[in-house]
Amino acid sequence: MRGLTSKRVLITGGAGGIGTATAQRFVEEGARVAVIDRDEAACKRLHQALPALEVILSADIANPESVAQAFEQLDQHFGGLDVLINNAGISIRHAFMDITPEEWRKVLDINLNGVFYVAQQAARRMLADGSGVIINMGSTNGLTGYHYYADYNASKAGVIELTRSMALELGPTIRVNAVCPGFIMTPMQEAEYTQEMRHAFEVKVPLQRLGSPADVAALFAFLASDEASFISGQHFVIDGGEIAGGLASQP
Questions:
Q1: What is the mean pLDDT of each run of 10 residues along the chain (251 residues)?
Q2: Which among 117, 148, 152, 193 is annotated as catalytic?
Q3: Is 152 a catalytic site residue?
């Protein structure tokens, strides 16, 4: 992709499946890459697997003070930021009537509030430098109904609308978009899914397969690159065609 060489890139949730694939992709593109993740053990494994990473920070993105401290550390290494991949998030599978207030707050705190805290810190630096790209992690869950994920669905719908608002206010200096994956087979899901469960998801997808973390990483790289210089305020679905026919809403 044009324009990614030597760019300073921060990836939140960088030690997870999609985060790791995204870090790998940006390293391959010649970018300078930093990650934030609260899982210190996973961070150590990531650094062993990808020694070209320049910075690995431990922070809780649901805590604005923790986010501010992480960015102060990042300033010491990078002196600014060109690209933010706002990837970190969680989900808890529960029927609507079984979601507890604590679970509701936890999902919203990480998936929506955390995206806001990180994006605001990044935008301050990008506005000062005169340019930047922010890509938030949405989901097809924010676009159509899914059973048993009311808190997650609400958080991702919020991220999509937040993305639009940011694009309006931060342009023309900063481009802001959201990526909305469907079923992505991360290492965690590979460990949890039986063959029957995996097949049940695959038959919902017109391309008859689940996505890979590398598929999502490629979209992040494109949107961050100069190839996407006239794209802002949009959400991009990457789901193998799943929601084209309303298949996602089937239990």
A1: 97 94 97 93 89 93 97 97 97 95 97 98 98 98 92 98 98 98 86 85 90 97 98 97 77 59
A2: 152
A3: yes
